[in-house]
Amino acid sequence: MRPGGQPGYYPGFHTLEQAEFWDEATRKVVLERVRRHEGIRFFAPEEAVLMRAVCDRILPQDDRDQEHKIPVLEAIDARLFAGRIEGYRFADMPADGDAHRLGLIAITEIADFLFGKRFESATGLEQDRVLLTLHDARPPAGEAIWRQMPVDRYWLLLVNDVIGAYYAHPYAWDEIGFGGPAYPRGYMRLNDGDPEPWEVQERRYEFAAPSDSLSGIFTPIGRGNRGGER
Amino acid sequence: MSPQAPLLGEFGAPPPGHRLGSNQQLDMPMRRYRDSECVDYCIVGVGSAGGVLLQRLARGGFQVVGLEAGPFWDTERDWVSDEAGSHQLYWNELRITGGENPLALGANNSGRGVGGGSVHWAAFVPRFHPSDFRVHTLDGVGVDWPIAYADLKPYYELIEREMPASGPPHFPWGDPHGYPYGPHPLGGNGNILVTGCTRLGIPVCIGGPVAILAGSRGDRPHCIYRGFCIQGCKVGAKQSTLISHVPDALAHGAEVRDHCMAARIELGDDGRVTGVIFFDREGRERRQLAKAVIVCGYAIETPRLLLNSACPGFEHGLANSSGTLGRYLMAQAGNVVLGRFDELVRQYKAPPAHALTEEFYETDPARGFARGFAVQTVGPLPIAMARQFAVAKGAWGWGLRQVMMDSNHWGAIALLGEILPWEDNRVEIAEEKDRHGLPVAKVTFNLHENDKKLIEFGKRKVMEIMRAAGATEVVQEDRYAHLVGAARMGSDPRASVVDAFGRTHDIPNLFICDGSILPTQGSANPGLTIQALAARTADYLIREGAAVFSGGKHSMEAPPLRRDLSPPDTWGHGVPTMS
Question: pTM for this structure?
């Protein structure tokens, strides 16, 4: 991990500095995302505490200073509160909001089964052990929940929601070196990975996941007892 | 203040007026019909096909109203250069998806608003091959079309110029042809596809064919390579019927009634439809009377509307005496292959669609399955790419953070594989209802043996190309692209819903024209074919004239090609011509 400063290999790259070059509609949407934080309205207070702890392991932000943390829980809560969906629901899944609520119950049961603790008060490593059982589609507890929704679908709902909040944010674009909005200016250097004059060169360093985590290694997602192809 | 700033200050509000792209303004008043007026045609869904039909029929002198469930976009005010902020472009209302291989819907394949899917398509516009129209004869699979490639060819040529399409001067596959506008420059993913294919000796095509302007024309500017094609082209370089056909439709007296959700089509005592019941912007139920109705709602909403229009005489859905309505739904295999390169790629620049190969399109008996596939560039933005890594690498937590930090070293290309039409892949009506109280669609999708073999072979080939291009790590995610079928055309009324011109076999003044009428799909993106079929149906309806409304005997003769009905300056002059 990069000690302090902006995470990622593009130090000094800040897409928001380009906001004056963006069209007005885009600028409004992106700046609102950065500035405006609604309160939590979908999750109950105790659910919100747990969900925030889960989000913090699905995409950890320990390497971000307080000022540059990305409001992941807030974005997911806003989506569920507004009832915004992706245009479909799997036939074997409950509605998204219900699925998230059921998932939190299951996570609580798994943490209790494995460590006799609440997820929120478990160590980072313990929390990852709980989540890894979902990733692997082998949850050791929460049978009643998994009868209502397949664990692999819940895992992707959870991960996709966290991704949708995190990588929508300009701070994440800075981290990964994504140029961000580009209208009306456009791009001109299409080849050889060349940066635009306003982008920056990559400066790599050795990245290693913290030792209190299990998510730094890549293993295929489990399909549980549903089998089939991946 | 930022260290860099535009010389004249930040970009301000767009000029007043309804903007379509950065240069085009919609400044004519739109004709408004009363509900009580019986118009000639009511078109349900102003998308890829509906937009073309609206324009053609208005030019042909008919009174036409287009009902559109979504908004009539002002592209400067409503669209953004932002992935998450473009959610509204897709059909996001509830649908239930199931089967052994359930399809993702919404952003993946369903548009909403004037322009429909052509607003968020990547705009690849390959033609279908001549073989696509007779796969049952050639390969004993699927079904033959009631028309041949030769019937559609003049309309391919016409629409390619109306878009206009950019691409190579010589496109070697299928029926070889060229494109009116030159090819686009390569971005990172195109470079990978071209490099990989070339090293393997696979012919490959660069810079198109895409419905994205490589040079400015009229009030439409050329591409600026910003990579946000599927978030809606604010530039106006990528064709959507919103900017290419709808303005001309309005200029010729058509009405587009946006935020109007069709509920059902009404059938009169004489066995002919009388109009469309719809919910307007305020949620009021209204009725538009029409002498004929054309349903252009795409492969899910079209069968849904007809199934929801069941009535005495058509208890299982309007125009469904064959029982095939909702069946033979198809998606194409769209496996995305991601590859990691030592050097930087920065694949987010340039249009996602800009290079492809159709070298594996046709049946090769040695491969052990019928039909084939294409390999094409894609261009996932950060959210899409992270979600692909979550599946393709099983990434989450710190691993996901790490691979995304490294994402500028990754390129992406994809399979576009033909999946055959199967009876059990279908659209039905679910128990759940939408906010208007209309039952929502339930989609069931299962891969069959040929499909599975094709996908397995195809994805290995794409991964081989990725490795040949120099990728040191290659992963893939199973995906699907596009939706067609579910109200297929055919000559036999017992086995299809519409005839070769889109007329339902059961009801002489009810037509369907959109992706749902495709009997098979090849491994070409369907957008061009959908628009070409719409132009052909329009020529037919114009030639038939008042006979469509009177219930007399109708002809199955091909209509004359009406090049004079193109939007201004898109045929014969204003674009380069090739012949």
Answer: 0.96
